[in-house]
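Q: Focus on the chain.
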Amino acid sequence: MTNLRRRVRLLLRMLAIQRALVRHGLDEVVWRAHLLRPIAWMRKILPRRTPTQPLGVRLRLALEELGPIFVKFGQMLSVRPDLLDPEVAVELAKLQDQVPPFAGELAVETLERAFGRKVADLFAEFDTTPLAAASIAQVHTARLSDGEAVVVKVLRPNVAALIARDVEVLYAIARLAEAYWPEARRLHPREIVGEFEKTLGNELDLMREAANAAQLERNFAGSDLLYVPKVYWDYCRPNVLTLERIFGVQVDDMPALRAAGTDIRRLAENGVEIFFTQVFRHNFFHADMHPGNIFVDVTDPLAPKYVAVDFGIVGTLDERDQNYLAENFLAFFRRDYRRVAALHIDSGWVPPGTRLDELEAAVRSVCEPIFNKPLKDISFGMVLLRLFQTARQFNMEVQPQLVLLQKTLLAIEGLGRQLYPELDLWTTAKPVLEEWMRERRDPRTQLKRLIAAWPEISEDLSLLPRLLHRAIRRAEAREADERRAVIVAASSPPGAARSARLERTIAGASLVLAGVVWSGLSEPQWIGWIATAVGLVLLVVKRREP
């Protein structure tokens, strides 16, 4: 019965979604859905309506009506110019900061349940009128008992249950796509929904967001590029986040920035440097950097400083993806398309059997026309997008960890060129990438990585006594075998004795090397001495043979 109720609830939600789409003049989307294909004939007898509003407006209103998860989906689409017409993307971008707020009294109730205290006991002041509202939470201004100005982020009531319901709907849609859309087999829609669900789950835990803010603050401690507000941990709970209140100019408020005498070019270049520093140096990047989440400290207008807020979505890459991305960018701007193709194959982004020359030719045909533009007009995000589109012809699998990066990169580029249209991203980013590559290949960096990995290495070395015991037993067994072999030496091929001596030489040298390393780097040292001694014995025994 429970399963039946769940299915009925799922069906009703899907019908509600389609009803909302119809209400906002998105009939075409509804009739293309598999759910209504059995009654598609009804479309011929129903009256046709002529929309009075642009497509982008209708889509935005429908997503707002459908709730938080669809608002987040719209936000994601707004930074994907490869999927949408520009006017639609511009309209969906309004979802970033035009979500209706919930009542301040509900925020007060949430706070009092979370802390078990009255709001008046928690804060000297608390403004029930929200400062800003988003799809998952909204923000109120407050003041602590010591007078410190703070902002308090509170999750929307019942938002977790609403998201769980709609994620289930998305899974159902993904299953339909896999069943009826051939392209879905390559795009893995259920995996994409899974990544989306994971991202939303992270946003629902404001303690995780607090930790993200603290990490970002440590990464840029003492930096002149980015300021991250302080976290007040005593005033944080899974559904409540309290941060230092910052006062600055919103990054897209050009009149205010110009009135303050801000060095706009430097501001735009700093934004690009911040992004590449986060991705390659820190491997921890703010992945929701739309204008509503970025402010500018213009205390010193000639050295403007970014101030970030909203740390619910962050991204990381593994070292392999970092390396391949950096090399891809560098190879592209050097027009080394063979290297670009080889990197796609080596990274595993395309099947290992892909022909290098064919992929190189495809990459060249797509990328070479880009260089007809001045470097300042070349988009890093579009370069990445075009490379992925080209690789899809060769059955490139969707890389979920790169989608977040691409989204963030496109947002940063759009913001940078909105600030300063002449911004040359390549000139700004190239030194960061090249220095990162140099450091990565520096022997001193390799030594530091070895030292950092020493706990794992020492754990492996702790197995050395057991391995030594086995090596000694094997050596004794070989010695016994050799003594027995003397009896039948006449019938043995000459190469057998040489092979046994070679094996013993290798074993002895290996034990000597392992023993020296152990005695120099780990405790107890006697284990290393024993290993060295046994290795020397094996080598000496070898030398005494005729």
Q: What stands out?
A: The radius of gyration is 31 Å. Residues 38-42, 542-546 have pLDDT under 50 and may be disordered. The longest strand covers residues 137-143.
